[in-house]
Amino acid sequence: MKSGDARYLYCIGDSAEKVNFGNIGIEGSEVYTIAYKDLCAVIHNCAPEPYKSEDDKQIKAWITIHEKVVEIALEKFGNVLPLGFDTIVKPDEKGSADKNLKNWLKDDYENLKKKLDKVKDKAEYGIQVSWDPTAIGEEIANKNEELKNLKEKIVSLSKGLAYMYRQKLEDMLKKEMEREADRHFKDFYARINKHCDNIRVEKVKEIKGKQMLMNLSCLVYKNKENELGEELEKIDNMEGFDALFTGPWPPYSFS
């Protein structure tokens, strides 16, 4: 197969417009659209193999370009379904890459339209809420009478007993913090959910000096962005808590 026989897919646009975006794609590829009915695929011609590199910086650069093309398409068409990096349609014994692409658009047309309707007039935001475990732990220990009494008792105990009771204190505090984290997660989720059309709970990440309580991908109506921002500002202003709000992004998590 020739190097340009396959088609690299960036996104599906909610438009039948035939557009040539110029050489803005990965490795300076010419990005254009192929239309079917009232949809279009934003693509460039490529080799039928994935983009591979041993250089992480190179891969990140390709992904950044991919995302930039999707953003340009979103600005042009107003509504898109982003596809993940390295989505490639190949030619086969049934036909060319263009034919296979059009067949996919035809066969999956109703599903693609439903997904486009689902994300119309919405954007994706990333929300991460974390707390300072040291500060929160001290606050819990000072408010909980049982923990306070145990902490005071340790001072008067022998070295061996004090060690045992400190272990007990740490276990009790850990359980209390887990209960507190669960309570805050439910509270924050309910408050954030009021301003979202859809939410995906993502895996929490490691943060130096902090503990992430929640990592959310949120699909938000564009006219509710400010309300969501105000809610997160309230959380961010709580003692010991941090709320990070990123976006707007094309709706990768909901495509």
Report on this model:
The structure is a single chain. About 45% of the residues lie in helices and about 30% in strands. The chain has about 260 residues and is of the alpha+beta class. The protein folds into 2 domains: about 5-120; about 125-255, Alpha-Beta Plaits. The strands form 2 sheets. The protein has a 5-stranded antiparallel beta sheet with strand order 2-3-4-1-5. Strands 6, 7, 8, 9 and 10 form a 5-stranded antiparallel beta sheet that branches. A hairpin with a 2-residue loop joins strand 3 and strand 4. Helix 4 (about 135-145) packs across helix 6. The longest helix has about 35 residues, at about 160-195. The two termini are about 30 Å apart. The model has no long low-confidence stretch (mean pLDDT about 90).
